[in-house]
Amino acid sequence: MTALDLDFVRKAAKKRPATVRSLDKMTVLQLARRTVIFTVDAAGIAALMDAARLDLPGITTNRIVQNVANHNPDVFWAIARRDHYAIEAPKGEGFLAALPLTHEGTRRLIDGTLDTKNPDLACIARQSERPAGIYVWCIHAKGSLVAAIPLVLQKFSAPLYQGVNIYSRPITKEGLRVLEPLGFSPGARYDGLYTPHLQMLDRSHELPVAVAAEPVDQVTVQVVRSMDEMARVMAVRSAVYMGEQHCPFEEEFDGNDFSATHLICHVGREPVGCMRIRYFGEFAKFERLAVRNESRNTGLAGRIVDAAIELCRKKGYSTFYAHSQKRLLSFWERRGFTRMQGAREFVFSDFDYVEVKFEAERHPARITLAEDPLVLIRPEGQWDVPGILEKSAVRGVAPLANAG
Ligand SMILES: CC(C)(COP(=O)(O)OP(=O)(O)OC[C@H]1O[C@@H](n2cnc3c(N)ncnc32)[C@H](O)[C@@H]1OP(=O)(O)O)[C@@H](O)C(=O)NCCC(=O)NCCS
């Protein structure tokens, strides 16, 4: 729903060439001189919603908006005229609320089954999660406050949101045209679905940074998910351990490779390093760290270990254990590991080793049993991005599942 000053938007739009469509290219600095946007607490949301209800009697309840903003604080943006804004007691004069929707939420928005008066929180992406679509939920911005709309929409131009289409469903006649000057056009689509009842700002040409053309020297560290990636790990380990350190095949591939997580490091498309992680009740064990000879001393091993620590912390581990070749103790120490108290020293596969340990802080957002089941089934390490199985949920229960 939308309540705002159309003339102001039209005048602002006329100042721009008609071809300019990207939010990035708008005269945001000019607009920002007049208005400020900021987040508010539950009471602030209630006050702004109560004021909006005088113009928009049909809007949803304060409690629902507060719950959604609690789920994702990027949802609700208060607006004030710059000369009325005081940091010591920030008071909104209008607002824009937008729903960052998951894949399922965006599908339901387009097919008309999303209850936008009381949206299911499972359909709303969390703050650190890339949404599949953004829905302009409600705008109350009268007079010059309307200048803040592009400011709010520009919040959704951060890398996390780049390329994500923005949708709106204006109820009033004014609202039908108000977003047009910002690049919205009638009709909306997503994932093969189409509706004429929404407007859409098509941002599909603004590719997210991660999808943009990959520089040839880009370093990536990823969890191994396929046989092809596992073959790359085995190639690196064969070169490093069997080739350089003359480790016999049966000692290098010791029967523990199928009870582990493997990380593979690439520079561009070339596999250059890897590490194996095995999990025990109280700790995660890092082993088989290897970087190809020609790629060494550029910090790659450090990046692999850091990525492993982050992955394991997210899984709930905070104690990390490794067997350091004695000559490499300083490498592990630079990553936070220390020689364990009473550390045992031992020899295997022709090298002498010592036990090292790192006690990290518990990850504040580690996975727990309270986690959404659909988040738990996402690919390891990609718990912030909707996974393939969420997409399958739209198929519902197959008849076979209920048979016999
Ligand atoms: C150990 C290894 C993984 C380091 O990879 P890397 O990408 O070169 O490591 P980084 O660039 O992140 O760090 C380099 C550091 O490693 C240490 N290091 C690497 N090779 C070393 C060696 N032969 N002797 C002593 N220290 C060594 C150094 O401390 C160096 O630190 P510097 O910055 O002071 O020079 C790589 O040399 C390798 O694969 N070695 C053979 C396999 C192996 O021994 N694995 C370790 C089992 S515990």
TrEMBL record:
Residues 219-360 form the N-acetyltransferase domain. PROSITE patterns: GNAT. InterPro entries: Acyl_CoA_acyltransferase, GNAT_dom. Pfam families: Acetyltransf_10. SUPFAM superfamilies: Acyl-CoA N-acyltransferases (Nat). One of its GO terms (molecular function) is acyltransferase activity, transferring groups other than amino-acyl groups. This is N-acetyltransferase domain-containing protein. It comes from Bradyrhizobium macuxiense. The lineage of its organism: Bacteria, Pseudomonadati, Pseudomonadota, Alphaproteobacteria, Hyphomicrobiales.
